[in-house]
Design a protein that fits this description.
- With 808 residues, this protein is an all-beta fold.
- Helix content is 3%, strand content 43%.
- It is built from 2 helices and 62 strands.
- The strands form 14 sheets. Strands 1, 3, 4, 6, 9 and 11 form a 6-stranded antiparallel sheet that branches.
- It is elongated.
- It starts with a helix and ends with a strand.
């Protein structure tokens, strides 16, 4: 009897001790916990949506987490501190019931209420068979020794692999106890899984840390794992085994692709390891069947040993992370001298720094599909995002795929299979190791393989085209290739002397002086004649034989030339600032947007510019975000009978560019063309070719000129003259001629107008802008005294020639 009393007392003590070590933090019935959210996630206490259908949780009320629909780790945290900091020596095991519609990752985090940097966290990955039902999860904090954590924080699908804005997840019954759950494993692939990819690694994850059966650390994971063909009695498949840093997760990476449409068996060898709770691991295995589709054949893209299909390999960030090409043995990540890419990831851009490869040519896409593989050496288990795009920067057309990195401190091969690719030229690869993770760690990349990167057939375009009869006197010749132009020694072309030809009359004709340039990608050569070409003449241009090479195939260039014939352009004078104008209410048809136009018509001093013509002076400011401009309103719409060319003379203090915006009256429909100013402090005629415009889309009658558009730091003075373009509506083109034009200076004038190319004793008349005759007489000594006129703008008529001047 005494013995029974002692035993019963011991049982009561144990029961009471266990009950004392049970803490309910929230059940949303008798014990509530209010959560605050961030990142646009929300929390609410709601009725249990499955209380009548799921016996695992019949509570009336539960917590609801509504996802924000972004991948910035939105979550919810308790709005009040716990009654006391958590004592993990007493209650190390936290439990929570969860209902989710997808196999999401759930992060259970404990923080210090006043300092979130003091924390500990444990995650759980739901499996497919744990979805659409209530499951109770256990989060093991038994190894945590902190004594200052008093806040609960929850994240559901923090990387947004399954969620969008408004996706809801439910949780209930958050408690802690000293009762350890039974040791268990989750396996991927699961038992009976089918359509498993032949290249996928296998993963086995326990809820406790693992060790050898004799309590020693697991130093050789391959020795405690097994992979066989067909079943437990099948042939062994060679593989490499890995264990995670927290000693909870194994990875089995086959040494070769598995066979298609084949069953495999894998698991943990019996009698080899145990959980950290001293429970032996037993009965952990699963069978799966591979898909019928083998991984596509891939070609080398970049192995960092000199074999490459990439023209640029770099990193991108702010600042760009450091990178280098190193050997495995030097870095202690292998025993060979194999060269690999070292990426020293920092924390800029929220952890979204990247590795960028620009391929020499677009990849070969077959039926909208493309497959890639690559090796990665990561300091931790994480994931890598692989972005395939048609451009380097954000935007463009792209697809992204993620692959889990299951191996820490060891090499793993990742595989990516893209489908439904749009028909664009994919020539950019961007790699994001641990995307969104700002932890500053070093990653290694090697052996990037993928679809063929074929060299395209050579294609060269000439403008004007070979044999063209519609060349212009102001033509610039261009030779554009899909291969790069280089010097014979493969260096970049800095000097075209002796390497290009421009001749009048054909290949044996007389040489024409020119300047030349090449585009940044070395694929477009531009030839600019020093003087305008002659109407009616034939011209020859091209590359001198054996003077350059095509870099892509290394061949000397021969026979690369074209000929064209020049014709006269059908153009009208829109405004020559000497009285010939098709602008509305001239001079009020000229506007400056953002800064005032000063001295609309300024007569140029003989020692200055433009053969004594009048011109438009524009003092460009820095308003409108640097997009001030001069605008001309024409008195009729542009019609289709003229060449689609607009020209204007510009006098500029700097080399820059000019943008012409051709639009309808209210600028709701417009078309823009750029031209470059290449000469400073001299007149240069710019030509704007808008051959591709559809003039039927609108009544185009407005011309806006932007010089140095977007520059907010540099106010300058510019001059315009001789604006010309296609004829307008039914208007007759105004011919621009200088033969008998009235010329004088200065303008503005104070006392005397000095006339040029006029005869003595010729009568003159001066009118106000209202048409009143204010002065007349005979020209004497080539000058007219206007000192007695009031300040303003006047018209002067000499021998039927009429133009304006300004009296100061």
């Amino acid at each position: 009897m005494k013995t029974f009393t002692i035993l019963w007392s011991l049982v009561l003590v144990l029961i009471c001790g266990q009950l004392k070590a049970q803490v309910v933090y929230a059940d949303f019935e008798s014990t509530d916990m209010v959560f605050e959210s961030w990142g646009d996630a929300t929390f609410a206490k709601v009725a249990n949506p499955t209380s009548d259908t799921d016996a695992t949780n019949t509570s009336a009320n539960v917590g609801e987490f509504s996802h924000a629909g972004n991948n910035w780790w939105t979550g919810i945290g308790a709005s009040q501190r716990l009654a006391s900091p958590i004592d993990f020596s007493v209650t190390p095991y936290f439990r929570m019931k969860v209902f989710a519609s997808s196999p999401i990752y759930i992060l259970f985090k404990l923080e210090n209420f006043d300092d979130y940097n003091l924390n500990s966290e444990v995650g759980y990955q739901l499996t497919d068979d744990e979805t659409n039902k209530w499951v109770e999860l256990t989060f093991n904090f038994s190894e945590v020794t902190r004594t200052d954590l008093d806040k609960i924080v929850l994240y559901f699908d923090p990387e947004m692999k399954f969620s969008q804005a408004g996706t809801k997840y439910y949780f209930d019954d958050i408690n802690a106890s000293n009762s350890a759950p039974a040791g268990e494993f989750s396996l991927s692939p699961e038992e009976g899984a089918t359509e498993i990819k032949v290249q996928d690694p296998l993963k086995l994850t326990a809820n406790f840390a693992l060790r050898m059966i004799d309590d020693s650390p697991i130093s050789d994971p391959s020795s405690v794992l097994v992979l066989k063909k067909t079943d437990v009695n099948g042939a062994d498949i060679p593989f490499t085994g890995y264990i995670s840093n927290d000693q909870k997760s194994f990875s089995i990476v086959p040494d070769m692709f598995l066979d298609a449409s084949t069953t495999y068996w894998y698991g943990v060898k019996e009698g080899t390891i145990e959980y950290s709770t001293d429970e032996e691991v037993t009965g952990i295995s699963a069978s799966f069947t591979t898909t019928a589709n083998a991984f596509p054949q891939v070609y080398n893209i970049e192995d960092f040993d000199g074999n490459t299909k990439a023209r640029v390999v770099e990193t991108i960030g702010d600042p760009s992370p450091a990178y280098s090409i190193v050997s495995e043995s030097d870095e202690g990540i292998g025993t060979s001298d194999n060269q690999v890419f070292k990426f020293e990831k920092k924390s800029s851009w929220g952890g979204w720094e990247r590795i960028h490869l620009e391929l020499m040519y677009p990849i070969e896409v077959t039926d909208g599909k493309a497959a890639f593989s690559m090796r990665i050496y990561s300091p931790k288990t994480t994931y890598l995002r692989f972005k395939l795009s048609n451009q380097k920067d954000d935007g463009g057309t792209f697809q992204e795929l993620d692959a889990d990195v299951n191996v820490a401190n060891g090499w793993q091969t990742l595989y990516f299979e893209f489908s439904n690719l749009t028909a664009v030229d994919y020539s950019h690869i961007l790699l994001f190791p641990a995307g969104g993770d700002g932890e500053e760690l070093t990653y290694y990349i090697d052996d990037i393989k993928g679809p063929n990167v074929p060299m395209p057939d050579l294609n060269v375009d000439f403008l004007p085209a070979d044999g063209a009869t519609n060349g212009y006197s102001f033509s610039k010749m261009t030779i554009t290739s899909n291969y790069e132009f280089k010097n014979l020694d493969h260096s970049a072309i800095a000097d075209f002397t002796g390497k290009l030809a421009l001749k009048k009359g054909g290949s044996t004709g007389s040489d024409i002086a020119y300047s030349a340039s090449i585009s940044a990608d070395n694929k477009k050569i531009t030839i600019i004649p020093v003087e305008q070409l002659e109407v009616g003449s034939t011209y020859y241009y091209g590359v001198v034989d054996n003077a350059l090479i095509f870099e892509d195939n290394g061949e000397n260039i021969t026979g690369l030339s074209a000929t064209f014939t020049v014709r006269e352009a059908n153009m009208a004078v829109y405004n020559d600032f000497d009285g010939n104008s098709l602008c509305l209410d001239d001079p009020n048809g000229v506007y400056s947007i953002g800064s005032s136009v000063e001295n609309l018509w300024v007569s140029m001093d003989p020692d200055f510019i433009n053969e004594y013509d009048n011109a438009l002076e524009w003092n460009r400011g820095t308003e409108n975000w640097g997009w001030e401009h001069v605008q001309f309103k024409l008195n009729n719409k542009i019609n289709t009978s003229g060449d689609k060319i607009i020209s204007v003379k510009v006098y500029s203090p700097k080399t820059t560019y000019v943008r012409l915006k051709l639009s309808n009256n209210d600028e709701s429909v417009f078309y823009e063309v750029d031209a470059n100013i290449t000469a400073i402090n001299t007149w240069e005629t710019l030509y704007f070719d808008y051959s591709n415009i559809d003039l039927s889309q609108a009544e185009y009658n407005t011309l806006s000129f932007f010089i140095d558009g977007g520059n907010t730091d540099d106010a300058q003075k510019y001059y315009f003259d001789d604006l010309m373009g296609p004829v307008l509506g039914n208007a007759t083109a105004i011919a621009k001629t200088h033969a008998n034009k009235l010329k004088f200076y200065p303008n503005p004038v104070v006392d005397f107008l000095y006339l040029i190319n006029t005869s003595q004793n010729v009568n003159y008349e001066v009118y106000s802008l209202s048409g009143a005759l204010v002065k007349s007489g005979s020209i004497n000594a080539n000058k007219i005294d206007v000192s007695n006129l009031f300040k303003g703008v006047y018209l002067i008529k000499v021998d039927s020639q009429v133009t304006k001047f300004i009296k100061k």
